[in-house]
Amino acid sequence: MHIGVANDPTRPLIDEIRWIAANGFGFVDLHIAPPNAALESTSWKDVRAHLEGAGIAAICRAPAYLPIDNPSPLVRQAALDELRRCIDATGVLGAPLLTTLFCGWPSHLPEESGYDYLRQYLSILIEHGEPQGVAVALENAADNRRQLKHFREIFRRLPNLKLAYDIGNGNVSTAKSMTRDYLFAFADRLRHVRISDNDGTRPAYLPFGAPESGSLDVARELRSLSGFGYDGSITLEIRGDRRWLLACRAILRDL
Description:
The protein is an alpha/beta fold. The chain has eight helices and eight strands, in the order βαβαβαβαβαβαβαβα. Helix content is 40%, strand content 16%.
């Protein structure tokens, strides 16, 4: 399993790459977002040179705020254009994957029309990425009420769509972690994993074992991934003092 860290877009991107490499992480989970990793102001060729010089790889994530579920067609088109530019930046970096967070469809659409809308928009992204060697992965959000049902239908309609699974998000407002449910449904589509802890009420991006109750059983989560044959990239999505990143990496390696 390859352990990486996301950059903090409020910090200079090159400094982030240097820190990640200097601390022995295998890749940067590159958050394409302002102010310091914005599409319009970042030289992605220079970033690629720094990644290669540091000897680390990258995957990329699109900003979560892009409103592809907005009721306005013009706003949705602008969000789609921005996502295509994210794919272009990912291609320039030589990264194999762009992840985008699931946020549903415009609320005025009935469910069947919503699935069709997502099929069209994700097909555009997938087809845009293919010539550049960039796969597109849909990431689960923290709203677990009907999300797995939605994912089953979306993935059925899109055979080339990949999954980015956030273990922390799969622990919110559920009787148990959703990891095995997603693995049973989509293990063959899984391309990336993100992990953090929380108390089961909201995403909190905490170090392992920090919540008083409701905390993840990290050993069980890793056994589930291993049991379904996953041995790919995993991002430690721990916010706050970066010493917690190093401690959580040690825990992952131990387990």
